User: What shape does this take?
Amino acid sequence: MMQVLYYEVKQDKRHRSLCKLMETIVSKGLKILFIVNDASYSYWDALLWTYEQLSFLPHVANASNNAANTPVVISNSLQQAANNAEVIVFADFDDFTCVSIDEVKNFGFNRIVLMGEKWPDDVDLNDVMVTKYRLNPESKWENF
Assistant: This one.
């Protein structure tokens, strides 16, 4: 069954939180296809290298010759991940709402990671397990 992991976080903390979350996913041995829109591609590419002084996420474009051996590949569209990623991460919730769950399944992903300020009331995901998290006062993720 497809699993959606939704992380609720304030806008001003979302980008750094998303980088840290992807770092955690990669540390578990999982590979990621990171979907960004054209307008934010360069921003995210730079941020993944610099979001912390002593840490970074190795990544390349999905079309790169090195993509198969890289834990995070970036794309501006839903497509087969060159690194055989199990997890698809959307930088922007609006980019996720432009694709269907069936499209995501067809590419072999079993987990979708989303982050936003509030889960939209009009999103209906039939036959999908949605787990929602938010940061507690100790900055740890907890279910809600």
Remarks:
- The chain has a mean pLDDT of 91.
- Strands lie at 3-8, 32-35, 59-61, 72-75, 87-90, 111-116, 129-135, 141-143.
- The CA atoms of residues 79 and 107 lie 7 Å apart.
